[in-house]
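HUMAN:
Just now I want nothing more than another pair of eyes on a protein record. I would be glad if you read both lines and explained how they fit together. I have put the entry right below:
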Amino acid sequence: MTTYEIAVVAGMAVWLVVALAILIVLLHAIRLLRETREPLGQISGTVTDLSDRLKPVLHNVEQASDQARRIAGRLRDDADGVGQALKSASESTGRMVDLVEERVVEVAALLAVVQEEAEETFLTTASLLRGLRRGKDNVSTAKRVVRALGDRGGE
């Protein structure tokens, strides 16, 4: 046999060994696939069962989420309303404080006028009483003088 023929036979032998190895690997792969088919089927069934069980839970979660969203919207609206009411109350309170301040200034001015009038009335009354006392004293003195003169004239 020539070298060429030996190389061809050796190449064929290598191809046969590789083909045989591939065949053995494929048979092993088929056997493994058959062995894993049953557990994969069980896993698939479990996943399907779990999916069926989770559907109501997911539905309830979606409903709860929608309700929470609606409640949050209502709370936001209520909070906005309360904020507006507080703003309005604050503005009204500010106006009332301004009015009260104006009234206090007016009352203070009125009290100043009343105090001034009371002081003038007190001074006028005191002056009048002083005048009456002096007049009384003058009348008393005049009576004494008249009496004294009358007593002398009779002597």
The mean pLDDT is 87. The chain is about 95% helix and 0% strand. Helices lie at 3-153.
